[in-house]
Amino acid sequence: MKILFLGNSHTFVHYVPARVAHFCGSHGAPLETAMLTHPGVGLDWHLEQSQTYYNLLYGRYDGVVLQHNAHPFPGKESLLQAGQRLGSLVPQGTKIYLYMTWSEKNNPQGQEAMSAAYEELAQCIGAALCPVGRVWQQVRASHPEGELYFADGEHSSVLGASLAATVIGRRLLGMDLSPTLCYEDAKVLEGLALDPRMLDLTVKDGKLAMAPLG
């Protein structure tokens, strides 16, 4: 299976696609991934990039995972408009998956609007929903010992990225999305070793920065 990820830092921080590939491979389903991301952008930004069109139309992907702005979430209409436009570009035979993100650590009440918007878009375009945000909030409530947020209270920790990857991987494979099972898998996936030459989010001199893993 070959999957394209379109998103922003909530896709590339701690490399959610690599974790999804590892999860699927460990369950006997080898997965090839590609990633088109940029910090702070939404699906509307991707609609203005030539590589988006080329990859969707000629990449021969089995699936595409779409992820919109999260912090702040620009609202339902923004997601619906961009999501529907992107959905119209996806060739027949390429399945659309929606990567529902999580609200800020200090804004748990914002999750409902974000989740409802993704759920509406999934219905509108016939996409499969990866309800990361809903599972995230349930795991936070039941497993307060596991910190899902990075130091900024917006991005994911390694555990948080592993939880996102687990939810997406389980959806790709048609598996149970029980928060308990997802959390157990995320704890295992948290230990995944990535190539140390890759850049990842870190804190340097009290500020967020990108630096090599090694």
Question: Concise description?
Answer:
The protein is an alpha/beta fold and 214 residues long. The protein has one domain: Rossmann fold (3-Layer(aba) Sandwich).
Short descriptors:
214 residues, alpha/beta, Rossmann fold, two-stranded antiparallel ribbon, globular, SGNH/GDSL hydrolase family protein, SGNH_hydro_sf
What is the N-to-C order of secondary-structure elements (H for helix, E for strand)?
A: EHHEHHEHEHEHHHEE
The counted number of beta strands is: 7
First-to-last CA distance: 30 Å
**The CATH homology group name:** SGNH hydrolase
Helix proportion: 40-55%
| Category by helix and strand content | alpha/beta
Q: Determine and state the CATH class.
A: Alpha Beta
Query: Spatial order of the strands in the main sheet?
Result: 2-1-3-4-5
Give the mean pLDDT.
97
InterPro entries: SGNH_hydro_sf (IPR036514)
Protein name: SGNH/GDSL hydrolase family protein
What does this structure look like?
It comes from Candidatus Flavonifractor merdigallinarum. This is SGNH/GDSL hydrolase family protein. InterPro entries: SGNH_hydro_sf. The protein has 214 residues and is of the alpha/beta class. It has one domain: SGNH hydrolase (Rossmann fold, 3-Layer(aba) Sandwich). It is 44% helix and 17% strand. It contains 9 helices and 7 strands, in the order E-H-H-E-H-H-E-H-E-H-E-H-H-H-E-E. A 5-stranded parallel sheet has the order 2-1-3-4-5, with helices on both faces. Helix 6 links the parallel strand 4 and strand 5. Helix 7 crosses helix 9 (179-189) and helix 8 packs across helix 9. The longest helix has 15 residues, at 111-125. The protein is globular and about 40 Å long.
